[in-house]
Amino acid sequence: MRYIMFLLFFLSLIEPLHADYRDLFQRQFIDKPWGGAPIVREGVCIDCHTSKIMKADYLKIPQEWKMSIHYKNKVSCHDCHGGDPDDAAVSCGTPHSGFVGTPKYKDVPELCGKCHVGILKNYLTSGHGKALKSRGEGPNCVTCHGAHNTQKASIEIINDVRCTKCHTYERARTMKQALFVVEKKITELENQLTDMKKSGAITEDIEKALFRTTAEFRTIFHTVDVNLVKAKTGEYSSKLSLIENDLKKIIEEYQFRRNFSAFLLVLFTIMGILVYINQKK
User: Fold this and answer.
1) pLDDT given for residue 29 in this prediction
2) Which of 11, 207, 216, 260 sits in a 20 to 30 Å window from 276, CA-based?
3) What is the pTM of this model?
């Protein structure tokens, strides 16, 4: 009876032991460590914009930026505005610093287009871009995505509150419906990837493939051409299905390795108990 109780005691420890073992498994058996938090260079831009000498309207910029998709992806102030983030003397306002202040309304797309090249190209051919360039009144990037609080591109950006500032919502609604199937699948895959990353699985290649496919699809949206988006829906749904199949393989492999590691832990625990019992005889 004593040996049975001893065995039950050891088995009760398997779950917490397995939790500890999972960390080792993720770092060694899966072969990569946990990823750290993103490191963003804040520099003197933030020091100045949070100081008492700054205008009230500018004091809110750092906090807005830290809530943005740019901050999440390690895009700092100087990446958009230029200047030297390590030298307060030339960080902004001097001709040789390369600093770009607040651009004129009609020049915002070119500022954003330094990174978002494909989107800029499609935007300039769209009704939105043509209206901006011809009359200076069309929506620019900030109109939909925000400025320093830049939000992640998503189907939720298309809504009646935002779109009816310029026109009726009917055309925008049709565009949103055309985007829905692909965007829904993108969201599902992003959620699965998030769960897998939390579990410690290696998903880097899948993330890159999904990012490229998502970026390509959303670039097309900026043409604001409903027929083109509809025509491309099937193509991108197929691309996402391939990514989904690759992700399923990773999930299956990870689950197998996790189950196998748990099996080994139980096996070694039982062997240890048997050795202990044998020594006590």
Assistant:
1) 35
2) 260
3) 0.69
